[in-house]
Write a structure and sequence with these properties.
two-stranded parallel sheet; mainly alpha; 23 helices
């Protein structure tokens, strides 16, 4: 009887698998990319709308930062738990639920008219966005055959890396031509289309479903509530400290000190718990694999540089060169276009060229572009900016595809969701660290540069006297009295010093980014692609090739 039941169950599963429609990999790609792209764009789109948002909800500069902090906190909390949720409810269901949550949160953000409501709904958005990236990455790896894994990660990278780049441009256009709620409302029709396409075209491979059923049964018997609690406390404390640390002057604030200590203790306990738990909520044992560890770390450093330069460049163009928000966004567009064109090309060539060569070439391109950016002056025109950014786009295209492909190349198929969750988390944390570090160093570099320049502005120097005298004469010719002309001339000179100070500080930041990126080179020793391009397990037989 028992053997008959087993036979009947196996036959039913076989018939079900046979009845399933073939999966078109391109429709799957388009379906799951909608959510990831929207989540990536929303991480940066609100930055250009901050002045409008402040006026709409009556918030101070310090208070309005919570709309980005709340989104970031919620996002990082969900990312590492994506596989845990996928085992319990299924990858497709988790993706759909999070996409619906993101769309609902977007609509509510557009309707919010108070700061607490806006922050709360941004948190809802963040909870939805957190699972979209890692789930898409896992679905694409399970859908594309081994020889096309590079192309799969190229398509994924176009959503993850291009989203933050076009967010400010899109946000600036919407704010300039429409009202601020539309930066949120625009997600609703796109999200609804994404829900329809995922429902219609995405199917979970049978081997993944079987593995998740078995893992879910064990997981329900040994729920790792302690590990989840430690993870939430540790990540939320760390992310808050990274988001708000610069505002409170870092370790000069007892609050930031407490957050860092709490994060250190909670995450240390979390690691111990996950290594000893019967069924851990997050499989951190995957980091024992040197290929996965090195690929993930390099990806985190890369994303830190991307987010830092995405923050620094618009600031430099708008505050120093006098660009409008729209002009700054358009100046960044060539980098985005080069990345969009370059990633599929790299994906096609991935199986023919060593990933180490791709990554090394990408690092060289980034360092060259960083050096070119360190030569920017007050006279730099848009063409000078675009040339460096185009080279940088080539570098990021060469980095992203091999890194994300090789990092997961030795991970078994049923563990891909765990690996992509950890990979996405480290990338997000890397971006937050990069932003926090460069924002802090920039302000200190400006102070240092100003001190150095002011030391040369001795009133007794002939050059200083000649400049002030020329300015006073020009102002007097316009009708100002001697006293007013002298005050205005001094202020004008101080303004010149301020702009030159900022230029020197930004030059140092760009050069520092290039130098820090060289840290990647020793990690290339661990990047080894499997022979024949095979990647952890067989591909579902129902995929259309």
């Amino acid at each position: 009887m028992a053997s008959a039941a087993v036979l009947e169950s196996s036959l039913a599963r076989a018939l079900t698998a046979r009845a399933r429609r073939p999966v078109n990999k391109w429709l799957v790609t388009v379906s799951v990319t909608f959510g990831t792209l929207m989540g990536a764009i929303d991480s940066s789109i609100v930055n250009v709308a901050v002045p409008k948002l402040r006026g709409a909800v009556g918030a101070t500069v310090e208070e309005i930062t919570w709309i980005t902090t709340g989104f970031a906190l919620a996002t990082v909390l969900v990312m590492p738990l994506t596989a845990f949720l996928g085992r319990l409810f299924g990858q497709k269901r988790v993706y759909l639920a999070c996409l619906v949550l993101f769309v609902v949160g977007s609509a509510l953000c557009g309707m919010a008219r108070t700061l607490p409501a806006l922050v709360a709904f941004r948190v809802v958005q963040g909870f939805g966005a957190g699972a979209l990236q890692p789930t898409e990455q896992a679905i694409l790896r399970q859908t594309f055959p081994p020889k096309e894994q590079g192309m799969a990660m190229a398509l994924f990278g176009m959503a993850v890396m291009i989203g933050p780049a076009i967010g400010p441009t899109l946000g600036g256009y919407i704010v300039d031509h429409y009202t601020w709620p539309w930066i949120f409302y625009i997600n609703v029709p796109v999200g609804v289309l994404g829900v329809f396409m995922v429902t219609s075209f995405v199917q979970e491979p049978e081997d993944i479903l079987e593995a998740n059923r078995a893992a879910a049964a064990r997981q329900r018997k040994h729920m790792d509530w302690a590990g989840i609690a430690m993870l939430c406390v540790g990540l939320s404390s760390l992310q808050y400290a990274l988001e708000e640390g610069n505002k409170y002057d870092w370790f000069s604030s007892p609050l930031i000190d407490t957050c860092f200590i709490l994060a250190l203790v909670a995450l240390a306990l979390f690691v111990v718990r996950e290594l000893t738990a019967e069924v851990p909520a997050v499989d951190i044992g995957l980091f024992r694999d040197p290929v996965f560890l090195s690929g993930t770390l390099i990806g985190a450093i890369m994303f830190a540089m991307l987010m830092s330069l995405t923050f620094l460049l618009p600031l430099f163009m708008e505050e120093i060169l006098g660009f409008t928000a729209m002009q700054a966004g358009l100046a960044l567009l060539p980098r985005t276009i080069v990345m969009m064109v370059g990633m599929p090309i790299v994906g096609r060539l991935y199986n023919r060229v060593s990933p180490r060569l791709f990554v090394a070439f990408g690092v060289v391109c980034f360092c060259v572009s960083a050096y070119m950016m360190s030569q920017y002056t007050l006279d730099t025109d848009p063409h000078g900016i675009i040339a460096a950014l185009a080279i940088q786009g080539v570098g990021f295209a060469c980095l992203w595809v091999p890194l994300t492909t090789v990092a997961l190349s030795t991970i078994p198929r049923h563990k891909l969701a765990d690996a992509t969750g950890s990979n996405s988390l480290l990338r997000q944390i890397g971006g937050s660290i990069g932003l926090a570090a460069f924002a802090t160093v920039l302000s200190r570099a400006q102070n240092g540069a100003r001190t150095g320049l002011v030391a040369h502005l001795d009133p007794g120097r002939p050059e200083v006297q000649a400049r002030l005298a020329a300015a006073r004469q020009a102002l007097a010719a316009r009708g100002l009295d001697a006293t007013s002309a002298r005050l205005v001339a001094v202020r004008a000179l101080d303004g010149v010093v301020g702009r030159q100070t900022a230029v020197l500080a930004f030059e140092k930041m760009f050069l520092l980014a290039g130098i820090l990126f060289l840290v990647i080179m020793p990690l290339l020793l661990f990047l080894r692609a499997p022979k024949g391009g095979q990647t952890g397990g067989k591909v579902d037989a129902h995929v259309e090739l």
